[in-house]
Amino acid sequence: MSDKQEKGAMQVDVQLVRDLAALLDDTNLTEIEVEDGDRKIRVARKAGGGQAAPAYIPAPVAAAPVAAPAAAAPAAEEAAAPAGTPVKSPIVGTAYLSAEPGAAPFVRIGAQVKEGDTLLIVEAMKVMNAIPSPASGKIVAILVDNGQPVEYDQPLVVIG
């Protein structure tokens, strides 16, 4: 029996780890995890935004928490955010600024919107979720790019 075939020896699918790392780069995600039976593979981007770092974690063991970015960073972003009412994402997904590729965006900076007007779409699990304006006003800022992954409660648009 060779060392790699010993009972309990770790066997990692290197190509899978490479594919997961490439998927992080393609989607701008910070972390992805795949579980297969008693094995769990987590690939996470370093805090500095560098190359993805593969990690092997046995399923029974809890994954170590990923270090959050410096606490000052979110506070600085909020301080620099435009004045107005932020419209936040109700779900995790991908933001789209128009109904289909090549179509005009739902809103532009400076546009007047009424309560209930569609501001953008967040796609989650192949379902397109229209994000309505919670109030009437003027679009002060659009904080996401077309096709950008968004997190729950992430500010998307600011209405002044």
Automatic annotation (TrEMBL):
Pathway: Lipid metabolism; fatty acid biosynthesis. GO terms for cellular component: acetyl-CoA carboxylase complex. It comes from the Bacteria. InterPro entries: AcCoA_biotinCC, Biotin_BS, Biotin_Carboxyl_Carrier/Decarb, Biotin_lipoyl, Single_hybrid_motif. Residues 84-160 form the Lipoyl-binding domain. Gene3D superfamilies: 2.40.50.100. It holds the Pfam family Biotin_lipoyl. Keywords: Biotin, Fatty acid biosynthesis, Fatty acid metabolism, Lipid biosynthesis, Lipid metabolism. One of its GO terms (molecular function) is acetyl-CoA carboxylase activity. The keyword Acyltransferase does not apply. GO terms for biological process: fatty acid biosynthetic process. This protein is a component of the acetyl coenzyme A carboxylase complex; first, biotin carboxylase catalyzes the carboxylation of the carrier protein and then the transcarboxylase transfers the carboxyl group to form malonyl-CoA. This is Biotin carboxyl carrier protein of acetyl-CoA carboxylase. It comes from Sphingobium fontiphilum.
